[in-house]
Structure formats: C-alpha cells, structure tokens
Amino acid sequence: MSTEFEPNVVAFLCNWCSYAGADLAGTSRTHYPSNLNVIRVMCSGRVNPLYVVNALQQGADGVLVSGCHPGDCHYMEGNFYARRRFTLLRELLEYVGVEPGRFNMSWVSASEGAKWKDVVGEVTKKAKEAGPFKQFRRAKINW
Amino acid sequence: MNNKPKIGVYVCHCGVNIARTVDVEAVREFASRLPNVKVVRNYAYMCSDPGQLLIRDDVEKEGLNRIVVASCSPRMHENTFRKTLAAAGLNPYYLEMANIREQCSWVHEDREEATAKAKKLVYAAVAKARLLEPLYEKEVEVEPASLVIGGGIAGIQAALDIANAGFKVYLVEKTPSVGGRMSQLDKTFPTLDCSACILTPKMVDVANHPNIELLAYSQVEDISGYVGNFDVKVRKKARYVDVDKCTGCGICAEECRLKGRIPSEFDMGMGKRSAIYLPFPQAVPAKYTIDPERCLYLTRGKCGKSPKCADACTAGAINFEQQDEIVEFKVGTVIVATGFDTFDPTRKPEYGYADYDNVLTGLELERLVSASGPTGGNIVLGEGENAFVPKDIAFIKCVGSRDKSVGNEYCSRVCCMYTAKLAHLVEEKIPGANVRIYYMDVRAFGKGFEEFYDRVRREGIRYIRGNPSEIFKRGDKLVIKVEDTLAATPLEDEVDMVVLAVGLEPRKDAREIIDILRLSQSADRFYLEAHPKLAPVDTATDGVFLAGCAQGPKDIPDTVAQAKGAASSALVLLSSGKVKIQAQISFINENTCRGCGYCVEICPYGAIELVTISRMGNPVQVGRVNEALCKGCGACAAACFSGSAQQKSFMDRQILPQIAVLGVMR
Amino acid sequence: MDMKKVRKEKFADFLATLAEQKLYAPQKVGESLRFAPVTDSGKVELEMSNTTVPPKSVFFPQTETLYRYEVGNTEIQQPAMGGVDIVLGVRPCDARAQVIVDSLFGWDYNDPYYQERRKATVVGLACNKPCVNCFCLSLGGGPASTVGLDLLMTDLGDAYLLQPLTEKGEKLLALAGETVETAAAGDREAAESLHGQAEQMITRKVETAGVAEKLPGLWEHSLWQETANSCLGCGICTFLCPTCHCFDIQDEVEGLEGRRCRMWDSCMFKEYTLHASGHNPRPTRRERTRNRINHKYSYFVQKFGHTACVGCGRCINYCPVNIDLVEILRQVKEAL
Amino acid sequence: MVNVDKLKEIARETISRDDVKYLIGWRQGTYGFRAAPYFMSTPEEAEELIFSPLCTNNLATYLTLAEKLPVPRGQEPDSRKVALLVKGCDSRAVVQQLVEQGISRERVLVIGCPCRGVIDQKKVEAKFPDVREAVSAVWDGDTVVFNLPGGSVAVPRQEVLAGKCLTCRYPNPVIADVTVWEEVAVWGSDDYVDVRELEAGSPQQRWGFWEEKFASCMRCYSCRNVCPMCYCEDCVLDRLNPQWIMRSVNTAENTAFHLARAFHLAGRCIECGECERVCPVDIPLMKLNRKLTKEVRDKYAYEPGVDPEAKPLQASYRPDDKEDFIL
After folding, report:
1. What does DSSP say about strands B392-399 and B193-194: parallel, antiparallel, or unpaired?
2. Is C216 contained in some domain?
3. Which terminus in chain C has less CB density within 10 A, N or C?
4. Which residue among C63, C68, C254 sits closest to A142, beta carbon to beta carbon?
5. For the segment B639-654, what is each residue's pLDDT rounded down to a tens digit?
6. How many domains is chain C built from?
7. Which chains lie within 8 Å of chain D at 3 or more CB pairs, if any?
C-alpha cells in the first residue's frame, strides 16, 4: 500500500441534477477515485455556506458543492443563490489562507455522468495537491 | 413514549452488484458497532419481497424505529422502502439510505477502498437516521373547477377538454370576444385551410358548453390560495350593453354617430368600426360592446339629443349606467393561455414602418388577404384615387426575432412559415406579382413545412439571403437596401410593398399575471415552465399550467397540443379530487426568527410570508411557511442567518452529523 | 531575605536559567498581550502597562479538558495536570486577584486542575506607571502590593530589583546564579520611591465601605437600567476580569472520541442563566448588570469576606461603551 | 459648523414629543478621550449631549439591541419612536436595518449629524499617554482640537482619525428625518488597499497573518453584539443544538466563528468599524469584513446601507452573475 496522502472530500449534491448525474456515472460503470463522499440535499440552494466551513473544520481536505446548470434548477432559482453565496465564501476562505483548490463548485446535470467522473477526479486532485488541511481543522486541537 | 433511536441497518448485496466490490460482511460488522444500532443484516436483494419482509419482521420483533438501507440510490428505491416502513407501522420518513451501489461499488474497483467508503456512507446515514423525525403527508381537497385565462385557441381548447371531462371551467377573456389571434388569420400554414372555418365551431362550443362559464371582456384581478384551492377575483368590465337582452342584430352599430370612424383592432386598424361594436362578425359571444373611450355619450356625457344606439335598440339592451362587476369563485387549477403580442416594428426604425404607408406587418397583410378583412380579400394599397395593387412585393423576415438589438434573442418559430404562406397567397391573389423574401435562415421544421416551403419556391417566389439595413422612399417606390450574402452583392431593391415578418413577443401586460400567480419569466420574458423538458406545461406554482404562446412562440398545432397537455395536467388534479402536499417541506421557528424577510425574497414559490405575532405581548414580525405552496427546496434554510428556517429531513441538525462523520472518518 | 537585581542586559540570561522550568510571561499573541509559555525570551514583554488578558488564564485556562473518553466506553482518561512552574511579570493587582479566586476553587471542593497550577511560583512586577483607570488603592492593594507573590520585581530603569517574598521566590533566585547580583545600597530606596510615585499617579478611587450592605437595598434602583441601556451584553468585562471565574462544562465529541471540558462563561451572556425550559431568571441586561456588581461587591463579600475586585481597571479600559465600574460604585454610594 | 447648541435644541424638542420614547445620543465619557452612549428621556438631559470627534459609537446598534420586555396582560406595547443621532456611517446601518426589516421606519426618528471623522482612541492615547481626566474635543478645519488640561492642542485629522474615517465616503447621513447642520464635503475614497495588500500574499502568508489573531480571540462576542446588523434573537454561532461551533476557545473554533460572522455580514456590513474598535484583543476584523465588502462591490456592484428600497444581496441574484471558478 502506498502511504501517499489521500485527501478526504465532502460533497453536497442537489438531488435532481448532480446526484442523478453521479448515479448515472455509476450506472455507466465509470470509475473514479473513492476520496469523495456525498451528502444529498434537495437543491444546491439548500447548502448553507457554513456547511463548507464546518466540513473543513471537521476534517475534510476539500469540499464540493454541485448543482444544476444555471437555468436548469429544479426549483428554478436555487443554484443562482448558491452561486452568489459560494462565490463570496470562496473569496473569504482564500483570503484567510485556505488553498484555492480546496473549495470547488460544479454544475453537473443528470445526464452528465462523464462530467461527474471528471469533476471527482479534478477536485480530488486539487485537494491532494493542497495536502492535508490543517489551518482550522478541529480534530484534537488543544486536546 | 420512548423514542430513543433503535436503528436497523440493512446492507444489500444487490446480487453481486454491490457484494463483488464491497465486503458487505465487513460493512455489517462495522455498522453493528455504531451508536444506537440494534440490528444489522446483509441480504442479497433488499428490495425483493423477502428483503422487505426482513425489515418488517425486525421492526416488529426488535422494536426498531429507524431504518438505514445501504443499497442503491435513493432515487431508485427510496419510495419502495418508505412503503416497507409504512407497512411495518413506522413513519415512512424514518428511512435513510446509503448509496453504496451507484456511488460506490459501481464506480470503484479496489475492494478495500470501496468497502471503506461504504462504511463511511453507512455511518453517515446512521448519524442522520438517529435524528430523523416523523413526517406526515397532508392532503388537500381539490375544488372541481378550473380557471382558464385567455380565450384564444389555447384557452378554448383547454377549456373544452376540461369541460368535456365534466368539470366546471371559467374562461376569462380580456377582449369582448374569444377567438384570439387565430381568428385574425386568413389561412393556416402549411395546409392552407381556412382559419375561421376551423376555429369558429370551437368558439361556439365554448359559448354553449354547459360546463363553461365564459367571462368575456373580463380580467383576472387577483388569485390567492394554493393548488386545489385558488380563490379567484375577476373584473367583468361594463359593456354598457345588457348581454341578456342584446340579440346581436347590429342595428345599434349601424346607427352609431361614429360609424366607420374608429379603427378596428381586429383589422389591425385598417378597417373601421363604430363606438358600439362587435369585434368581428363571428364573435362569441355575439353581443355588442360600447367602447367607453370612444363613445360620445360616455366620454362627453352627450350624444346628440340622445344616443342613437339606445334609440335604435328595440331590445332595450343599451345601459349606460352599467358598472364593472367583480365576480368571485374558487377553482382547483389554473391554466394561463394569455398568448402573445406581435413585435412593434417601430422599434426597428430603419424599416420605416412608422414613415411609409406601404410597409406592413404580416398580421396586417393577413387582414388584407382575408375575405372578411377591410378590403374583402383584395390586396389593395392606398385609398380612393390612389388605390393600387402592388406588383413588386418584398418580405423581410426575423423582424424583432433573433435580434439582440431589440432584446429578442429567440426565434419566433412561426414567421418563416407564415411568410411563405402569405407569399403564396399574394401570388395567388395578384397574378404576376413579383415576390421576394429577404431572410437570414429558413426554418421549416414542422410537419409538412419543408414541403410547403419547397412548393412556394417552385411557385416562383424568390428567397434572397440578406438582412436589409434600410428602407427608404424613392419616388413612388420603396427601396430596400440589402446585401445578398450568398452572391455577396449589395442590392437596392425597388418595391411597391414591404411586409415585415414580425416576431412574437410576450404580452405587454405579462407582468400582471406574474404578480398575480407568482410565475417566473425565462430569459426571453415568456412565462417559465417548471422544467423545459419534463414539465413543459407546469409552472413553479402547483396547480398552475401554461398553454400556448404565453409560454413561448409556437404555431397552432403546437399550441393546441400544449393546451391539451395543460388540460390533462389540470384534469389529473381535478379528477383525483385530492392533492398530496410534500412532507419534506420547510418550517420556521417563530421563537428565533428575526423577521428579516430573506426567506420571503428567496422562496421561488412565494410560500413564505411575514406575519406579526406576539412575543410576550410585543408585536414581532416572523416568517411563516404556507405548507401547501412549499416544494421543499430548502433555499430558505440556507439563507436564514438564525437557522430558524429549516427543511424537514434536511435540517441543519441532521446534516451536520453527516458532515462530521464524513470529515472525521478516514 | 536578600534582595537581588538583574541588569536588563542580563535579563535574557536570567530567563535562560529558568529554561528547564515551564515559564509563563507576558507576550504578544496576535495583537494583544497575555501570559503565554516562553519559548523565546526575546518575546517576553515587560515594558507594558498590563496584559490585556489577566494571568488567571494560566491558572484557570479559558478552555480546559477535564477528561477524555470514547463513545460507548465508560473509561475516562485524565489529562496531565499542572504544566506551570513559574508565572513571571504578574502585576500586583492580578496576583491579589488570584488569591481571591483561590477561595472559590478551594472552598467546597478542592479543584485539582486549578490547585496543581497554583503551585507555580508567581513573580510580580511592580507598577511604576499605573494606568488611567487603576483604582487598586481603594481595594487595599497598591502598585507594589506583595499579596499572592513569591517574588516582586521592580523596574529600576537599567535593572530589575528582585525582592523574594517566599521560599519559592528564594529558590527561584538560587537558580538564577550569576545572572543576578546583590542589590546595591540605595536600590531598595529607589524602588520604594518609585512605588510611592506610582501611588501618587492613581487618581481614580472608590469608596467600598458600606457598599456590600447597601447593594441589596438598591435591587430595584433605576441605575441598573440606566447602566444596562448602553451595555452590549458582551463578555469583555468578565473575561478580562482577573477575579471572574465562572465556567461552563461541555462535552465535545468528534466521531467516536469525546472530551469533557470547561470553559470560561460570562454572567453577561443571555445563555448564562437560561434554563432548559426556556425560562431565564435574568432575562435582560438590567438583571445581568446588577448581578455582576452584586456578585463582586456583595455576594462574594458575604461568602468569602472580601470583594471580588482588585481595581485593575480592565473592565473600564476595555468596555466599548464606557460602562465605568468606578462610576457605578459612586452612584451606589450616592443612591438613596 | 458643528453647532452643538442647535443639536441640543433639536434634542429637547424631540424628546418633548409625546410620540418619542427616548433619544439616544452621546455624552462625554468618564475618562480620557471617550464618549459614551447616552439615553435621554427628559429635555433637561439634553444639556449633556455632545457631538464631537470622540463620538465613535454607532448608536444604531441600540435600535436592534433594545430588549423587548414582556408586556403585562391588558397593556399595550409601547409603540413610541426611538430618536437616534447618527453619523454618516451610522445612518447606513439604519438603512440596512430597514432593508432587513429589523426596524420599522415609523418607529425611528433619525437625527442626522454630518460628521468630519471620529478619532481612533488608541491613536490619541498614544499621542497623549499621560492624560487621565476626561478630555473633550472639537473639529477645527482639518484638525481635531483636544482640550487638554494644560491647554488646547490641535492635531491634523489624518493623525488621529479612525481608519474607517480616512476612507469615508459617507460623512453625511444617507437617511435622516432632521439634519442638524449643513452637509460636509466628502474627503475620502476607498481602494481597499489594506485588503489588496493581504490578497497579494500566498495562502500560507495569509493564514500566517490570521492564525495568531484568530487564536487570540476569547469569543467574548463583543464584535457580534456591537454590530448593528447582528440582532438575531438567538445566534446560531453560540447555539448548542445544532452546535455549529464548539464552545472550546481555540484556533479552529475561533476561525470558524469569525468566518461565519464575516460571511453572515457579506453584502450587509456597512463598515462602521465598531467590531474592530471594540475587540479587546485588537483582531483586525474590518480587514476581514472589508474583503467581502470589496468583492460585493466588484462582483455585484452592490453597496449595502444606501438604499432602503434595495433587495438584500444574499436574497437576490442575476442570471448572469460571474461564475468563473465553477467546474
């Protein structure tokens, strides 16, 4: 077994597009790294930006939020709000010294199983490059 | 009541689909050590009857009260297992699924990695399952009636379908008569059948149908409520004619002092009418209306010694005292079929529509070629001594469509074909006419369209590829400045008549319905459907459907098809009589809500409103969710600073433990 | 006990003799001063008015693990206790404050975590220039008070005079060896003169006599509401108070590992008295403000015989809205 | 220009009105270069009112901080207005509170005080370290004059004004029922130089900048409590269920707290600088807030607290919002 650093990525997927896209990747038997674990929510607009901070704090080395392409939101507008929130959150995270590769967002539709595979590959690679997240990781600080 | 979580975890092999890559026994063993987990089992096919029976037995024997199924995607079998829970006497929302097939065993090859991930996913599901709460799907009754807004062909068709199924329909039409745009057309492409001949019977059916209440010359003022229970307020504008007495004989119009002096809307201003009028001969209802903005008596309070119409009306139907009337009723569903406006070509001043009499729009030409039109079907320009029959005729396509400069990026879908149709009719009516069509592209995509386009070209109509830059007058002629882009030559084409194939636009007053029904607009400003592919007649508001050009430009068959679709969607609700309300909806903790209204702004369904409550005697404003309107997207929850807005089954306190597990577990 | 002195150029060497010990001294953390473990003697900051965070943070850390456990396992592991040998640079007011806090942690229960740290040697630093809001004189202290100290340092300009007060203080000086020298004749007088000058600089005064007795009678007095009007309800006054000692106990779990810990709490927070039922016996800032003053100047006096205030002035210096304890006490005094 | 007598007169009139509950202004503090918030309910109290370079506190906070006491059965809640003195920056807080419906317009009477900048107490204390008694100050041209015990000293504004005042673009109230004196000319502009400086570093450098600062936080919540935009009944950041942030005070929890606080202020911070001013351990919080203010301005051309009719930034979107980082 290699002792190479394997990042831990937490992903928030909307039920209608991205989660379905991820299911399609499975149905099509595409293969991708196992570093990413999914939390299903109904809409990317449901993802509270503090989830991302919390995930980093709790041990994630990378976080992904994925929703429907703009205009395709099952709830019409959720991903537009998400886009604003996470654009700002990303700026804030980088500003305090979180590496740019750690937080990502993607639009993956229900038909884009192949894109999902690429996205997983990409965010895993970026998190790997950034290394273990230490800045404000909660675990065992001051224990 | 002991509701301490007792969780049963069921790990599915899915034959070998999961078991080949995931060590299900290891996952089972791992899960058995997790907090609150009482029972863990492996089974070949959890979704099979024996699989489901396992759960039911354990619930009964072990007293389980939360179930985690680690199997395929919840998008696949969540409903299956919810039913299993219900059958076992558990609330169906005590279920959480771990997707270890689509998002684990099928996408990972390494058995160790896949097993590790499956454990994590199971743990995350257990962590959430501990905190699940029971949810209840509420049902509301559906009022067995429907409102159709707009009396064009879309509204007529939808109304007839619903009425024929046995439900009451209120058909509201803004103008004095149903019929809409289709009634103004002469022939329809590509079959060239007479528009009026196929439309009029339907109009009459609407008027006579026992289930249809036609509210012509009326406007929707307000709609409140939610799916199944909309409260509608309609303003019936005063016609100043008692419709019960009016026989439609028309003597009043003959007698009117303003006879022949008011441009007829129906004839696009080219024909003339009286102040009391029937918009067109086949109008339904065949009742006269007094134009309150023109009638001398209504505008000046005086019409000679006495209004001639009233004097002439033997039925005594004229009533200048008539007032607008508000009609209120309840419906279960609403169909919006408000149609379109044609593009106003004065917004393209280079085409000289405002400057030159002989520049017409397609719809104006339509009236000219119509036998019921102002010229009796003869294409004659000018009046009196100057009247002439044009010989050189040019059409310009895509006027106001596919044109970012006027804000319309979309294709209007009908202009290519109506241009071909009109060109054909011109050729037919003016022997020897020299007709050419300036175009960017020809889109003849429908049934019989390409054949018709081909026929028209064979009839000698010239298609010249080029987008004219200017039209100006030279002597008696109109000159079109254009570059033939296929020949790469600049042209100055002298013609007698230019027909602008204007595109379709949303109604100028489209906003009104948006505000009333909380609809959205797509980028093209037409009403937005719930899903462009899979819910093309639905809207974001449950129970509200779209038909016809209100949703986007389309031709008559598409309009009718969509109207039938909207009607059948409405009928699903009407005939079942009940509608289920989502269970996984949002709620707001009124104790902690600060009333900032972010959720109200964000909710795409207008499901949240601010209400004033008393907090220890102090009036405070808080958000409140209308459960019938909420669709459970959770956008409010993400926007809420105080965490007061939450989505059931996706509450912060349920998601944070999932994050913790996925983060902490390596 | 012999007085010594350490020349400033030798101060680093002096600290080096304590290198084996776990030494805490004022240092800049972020943008403010507090007591922190010394890893680099160059970072020790003694040219200060006082630390923002009082040295109570050493003896009674803001967050402290009491024990650790695994979820589902009844065994607990206790962390190592102690970890502090010397606390250097403590102002006399803060040293007196710690003695006040001692009575709390050794009253009905001897708190081992606290007591273990209190075994540390406390090296004081006399104030040559008290701050604007110091009023220690009114509370029985002073710029060179020795209460709670094992050794008192006085800044003589080019050297620190070292005055051992206890055996622990002597021991520390013994360790210092060659880095310190015997104080010269006149050093003591110089120090005393500085102490006297410092006392002169203290202009703020409170009259504490009778306050404890009077406070209960002012329960419904309007001064509490007037004070609370501008109060933000933050924790500055209590967190920075060297005698405030309230704490909360929480279990914090990460995955399957957990710990029980305690952390400072503040009676100025709404949650402080919030019951699980939702009832809050101190529902507004008025009650909370009243409680803070009553606790320091009445309840504590009744229980332990002395006020829980040493006049360090921090609550006044740092209050963002100029709520001034001296002023409140004046109002209490004047109230009818 | 600053006619305090006029201000007192207006205050007296205002407080005499039947429909005004109390008036919040400033008065001289108890020591040094301080002013203190001042709650007045009688006309006589107006005598103590001041408006000077010492008046740093943003009193708009008190509009939302005011506790609603239980109304005894059978009594009507007090619906009288609160009158409030505002500087330019403070007035933006009032506007934003209106946007977010934290207050209702008819319950507030805004008395506008065009302002020439308030002091940074630390800068002044560094200049006059030995001053112990309460000192008043006035504006005079481009200086601030301190009436020290030994005589008045004029100091150029640049040397003593708070950082936010040096880049101030809103010295005049953007909302007011009465404006006490004529507007002052705008002198500041803001290029977010401080933010850009930090942005230029590497992630390691940026974290290096923040780490110790966040580590030094005691979570006294003064930054949150003083903020005129933070007025939730129950703040998520110290809630126990769900617990977003543990009570433990350490770098991880403190950082999460500050990120969450800053994010909650995205598109809402009106840059009154109070959080930074009150921080007892001097965390440069405005440097954090201003990052988002800058992004909000650059990306969405949005500025909070200037238009009471505006939609909140986080509750609106444009279909063509930038999305260059999205995969």
Report:
1. unpaired
2. yes
3. C
4. C63
5. 999 999 999 999 999 9
6. 2
7. A, B, C
Is C206 within a domain? no
Contacts of B665 in chain C (CB under 8 A): 255
Chain B positions touching A31 (Cβ under 8 A) are 107-109
Subunits adjacent to chain B (3 or more Cβ pairs under 8 Å):
A, C, D
Nearest by CB to B633, which of A34, A38, A42?
A: A42
CATH 3.50.50.60 in chain B is located at 145-234+328-339+507-576, 342-505
For domain B586-648, the CATH class is alpha beta
Largest CA distance in chain A: 47
Distance CA D92, CA D228 (A): 10
Residue C183 has pLDDT above 70, yes or no: yes
pLDDT in tens, C255-298: 778 899 999 999 999 999 999 898 999 999 999 999 999 999 99
Q: CATH homologous superfamily for B342-505?
A: FAD/NAD(P)-binding domain (3.50.50.60)
CA distance B659 to A48: 12
Q: Which fold has domain B7-135?
A: Rossmann fold (3.40.50)
- Contacts with B664 from chain C: Cβ below 8 Å: 254-255
Tokens found for residue D217: 């936080």
Q: Are residues C81 and C189 in the same domain?
A: yes
The secondary structure of residue C79, as a DSSP letter, is P
DSSP B388: B
- Rg, Å, chain A Cα set: 15
Q: Which residues pair with C160 in a beta bridge?
A: C6, C155
> Full-prediction pTM beyond 0.95?
no
Assess contact for B505 and B400: CB atoms under 8 A: yes
Q: CB–CB of D292 and A92 under 8 A?
A: yes
**Neighboring chain B residues of A77 at a CB cutoff of 8 Å:** 520, 602, 604, 635
Q: Shortest CB distance from C229 goes to which of D34, D39, D69?
A: D39
The answer to whether B307 touches B241, Cβ cutoff 8 Å, is no
CA B78 – CA D137 distance, rounded (Å): 71
Tens-digit pLDDT profile for residues B62-103: 999 999 999 999 988 999 999 999 999 999 999 999 999 999
CA distance D255 to chain B (A): 17
Decide which of 1.20.120, 3.40.50, 1.10.260, 1.25.40 is the CATH code for A9-130.
3.40.50
Query: Shortest Cα distance from D201 to chain B (angstroms)?
Result: 28
Show the domain range for C289: 211-334
Task: Find the residue in B nearest to C73 (Cα).
Answer: B35
pLDDT digits (tens, 9 = 90+) for B96-134: 999 999 999 999 999 999 999 999 999 999 999 999 999
pLDDT mean across residues, chain B: 93
What's chain C's average pLDDT? Answer: 93
Rounded to 5 degrees, φ, ψ at B148 are -115, 120
The arrangement of strands across the sheet holding A103-107 comes to A36-41, A9-14, A62-67, A103-107
pLDDT in the model for residue B528: 85
Asked if the structure places residue C304 within a domain, the reply is: yes
Which residues of D are less than 8 Å from A107 in CB distance? 326-327
Is residue C182 located within the same domain as residue C289?
no
Residue-level pLDDT at C1: 62
Low-confidence ranges of chain D (pLDDT < 70): 1
